[in-house]
Write a structure and sequence with these properties.
Layout lengths: L10 E2 L15 E3 L19 E3 L4 E4 L5 H14 L3 H6 L6 E9 L2 E8 L9 E8 L10 H9 L2 H7 L1 E9 L6 E4 L1 H6 L2 H11 L8 H20 L3 E3 L3 E7 H9 L19 E5 L4 E3 L7 H15 L1 H7 L2
Parallel strand pairs: 1-9
Antiparallel strand pairs: 2-3, 3-4, 4-6, 5-6, 7-8, 7-11, 8-9, 10-13, 11-12
Helix pairs in contact: 6-10, 7-9
Bound molecules: adenosine-5'-triphosphate and magnesium ion.
The site of adenosine-5'-triphosphate (ATP) has 24 residues, from strand 4, strand 7 and strand 11.
Length: 314
């Protein structure tokens, strides 16, 4: 499912699957910048993310347990008086309530939230799933077995996985899109390559972009070191920036910043957001969420050393 901007581009998307066409309600369309999660595929008839003409996205939450749980998570952050929980709101997309839409004569409950790719001309998006343990503590043996082998190489080396990403290569103008099949086959070094290419580093590393990503990841890390409210399983950090800004800077012969996070208009468009709270559980023992925290630390390490890690094997 593609953006109309791609009509004249070299599109590389080997994982693309047949999509189901529903009749969508007025003002609602499939969301073209979705890179991972449940999609409108024929093979597995799930419902994907949608976009409303008012600019927000709709995440369908049909599951009887995970749906209400994710809605409650967002609602808790809206109503809480706890300052630490309130703080979390700055690292997640803005919650805009819930709605029901009709698809094939069925009501589907959806969470409405800010689209973190909104107004991007050439949206580059990457979903990084945090944690080696992607199953809930009470998962069945069978589920644990399935989850353990998913994205095994990347999780083993880096503690996170990359279920999907898309980016515009500013050097040759192509558009690259990779889904979970690619992610599952990915070696540890290919994960580094993916992160490197995702930020268009082959066209010259944008230190300001990396610094801005690191600044935002470190803030999330700092929040996590303090929080004892929740345990996050199978949750992601979503990265989104507009390659149009990189193109403009390259055309102007500039590099993107000089190692410090510079807060200009372009930088404000690099979004780093926590998403997917369907498997967030109350932290009954009030322990540090080691699974999330360790993975996030490794992700920070990778961005801190991206050029060196890339050079090691290329
Ligand atoms: N606020 C947002 N703005 C832009 N894109 C988003 C946003 N939230 C989600 N997405 C896109 O949708 C994809 C799927 O989202 P998410 O991970 O929440 O759903 P899921 O994995 O299908 O959900 P679940 O595990 O709860 O069934 C993400 O990888 C991302 O591409
Ligand atoms: Mg997800």
């Amino acid at each position: 499912m593609f953006d109309k901007n791609l009509a004249n581009m070299n599109v590389i998307d080997e994982d693309s699957m047949d999509s189901i066409s529903y009749i969508f309600p007025d003002n609602v369309t499939p969301f073209v910048n979705q890179v991972a999660g449940h999609e409108f595929t024929k093979a597995k008839p799930t419902i994907g993310m949608m976009k409303h003409s008012d600019g927000y996205v709709l995440k369908p939450v049909p599951h009887p347990v995970y749906g209400p749980r994710e809605i409650n998570f967002y609602k808790t952050l809206e109503t809480t008086c706890d300052p630490l929980l309130k703080d979390l709101k700055q690292y997640i997309p803005q919650y805009l309530g819930t709605t029901s839409i009709e698809l094939d004569n069925k009501d589907v409950r959806c969470i409405c939230m800010e689209d973190i790719t909104k107004d991007f001309k050439l949206p580059c998006v990457m979903d990084v799933k945090i944690g080696v343990q992607t199953w809930e503590p009470n998962a069945t043996e069978e589920k644990i077995k399935v989850e353990r082998v998913k994205y095994a190489a990347c999780k083993k080396r880096w503690g996170f996985s990359i279920p999907g990403f898309q980016y515009y290569n500013v050097r040759d103008g192509s558009f690259i899109r990779r889904g979970k099949d690619f992610g599952k086959r990915m070696s540890a070094q290919e994960a580094i390559q993916a992160l490197y290419s995702f930020i268009n580093a082959e066209a010259g590393i944008k230190y300001g972009l990396v610094a801005s990503i690191l600044e935002q990841l470190r803030k999330i890390h700092s929040w996590f070191r303090h929080q004892r409210h929740f345990l996050f399983f199978s949750s992601s950090i979503l990265f989104a920036y507009d390659a149009e800004n990189v193109k403009i800077l390259i055309n102007e012969g500039e590099s993107w910043g000089n190692g410090e996070a510079v807060h200009n208009e372009q930088d404000s468009k690099i979004n780093v957001c926590m998403i997917d709270f369907a498997h967030v559980l109350p932290n009954l023992e009030h322990k540090v969420d080691v699974n999330y925290l360790t993975s996030l630390e490794k992700l920070i390490h990778v961005f801190e050393n991206l050029s060196d890690l890339y050079a090691l094997n290329s």
